[in-house]
Amino acid sequence: MKKQKDFSVLISQQEIAEIITRLGTELTDFYQDIERELIVVGLLRGSFIFMADLIRAIDVPLVVDFMTVSSYGDGTVSSGDVKVVMDLDSSIEGRDVLLVEDIVDTGRTFSKVVRMLKNRNPNSVRICSFLSKPSAHKVPINIDFCGRVVGDEFVIGYGLDYAQKYRELPYVGIWEE
Ligand code: PRP
């Protein structure tokens, strides 16, 4: 197969490293007095690369878990109905949960998942997203820890896909045909 084409770089590897270091410091400060391990929950699939870097930058005891939700079914327009495809492995009751995403677009996924998790009586649920696209937000959403704001462009790489491709790019690029 031919080598994949280069995309224009929006966020370089160097900038990603700086974002990770900053978020790691913020999260370490925020959770420094935590009594039991922080439960870091990644929403698959987009969050897996960001989450791998992030947990190595947080200096408090933690455990990881994953959840897969589907909000789009087979279509491209959000149905607004979030279904759990793969649930957490363990209980979050009484625990501190950090929910990790690659991007908050409309905000529907995060707001539904936060509501779902809060029904399980955790001690706290906070959210951390690598990217936020405010121009696309459709529901009010408070991102507790945000890596970077982006504009309207369609972004790929560092976990983010276009039709499941390009997640492996080490930088965030702008998708173009
Ligand atoms: C993307 C992204 C977020 C969600 C954000 O996931 O990873 O989970 O959409 O969109 P929202 O703010 O409009 O709800 P996608 O459904 O593409 O799955 P993926 O994580 O497998 O890429």
Describe the structure.
The chain is α/β, with parallel strands linked by helices and 177 residues long. The protein is 21% helix and 29% strand. The protein contains three helices and nine strands. It has helices at residues 13-30, 48-55, 108-118; strands spanning 8-11, 38-44, 62-70, 83-86, 96-104, 124-132, 145-149, 155-156, 172-174. A six-stranded mixed sheet has the order 4-3-2-5-6-7, sandwiched between helices. Strands 1-9-8 form a three-stranded antiparallel sheet. Helix 1 packs across helix 2. The radius of gyration is 16 Å and the shape is globular. The relative contact order is 0.20. The mean pLDDT is 93. Bound molecules: 1-O-pyrophosphono-5-O-phosphono-alpha-D-ribofuranose.
Secondary-structure topology with pairs:
Blueprint: E1 8-11, H1 13-30, E2 38-44, H2 48-55, E3 62-70, E4 83-86, E5 96-104, H3 108-118, E6 124-132, E7 145-149, E8 155-156, E9 172-174
Parallel strand pairs: 2-3, 2-5, 5-6, 6-7
Antiparallel strand pairs: 1-9, 3-4, 8-9
The protein binds 1-O-pyrophosphono-5-O-phosphono-alpha-D-ribofuranose.
1-O-pyrophosphono-5-O-phosphono-alpha-D-ribofuranose binds at residues 43, 45-46, 71-72, 78, 101-109, 161.
- Kindly report the average pLDDT value: 93
Helix content: 10-25%
Give start-end ranges of low-pLDDT stretches: none
Strand/helix succession: EHEHEEEHEEEE
- How many helices? 3
Which secondary-structure class do the elements indicate? alpha/beta
Bound molecules: 1-O-pyrophosphono-5-O-phosphono-alpha-D-ribofuranose
Strand content: 25-35%
Compute the gyration radius: what is it? Answer: 16 Å
Question: What coarse outline follows from CA principal-axis ratios?
Answer: globular
End-to-end gap: 18 Å
**Strand arrangement across the biggest beta sheet:** 4-3-2-5-6-7
Give the tally of β-strands: 9
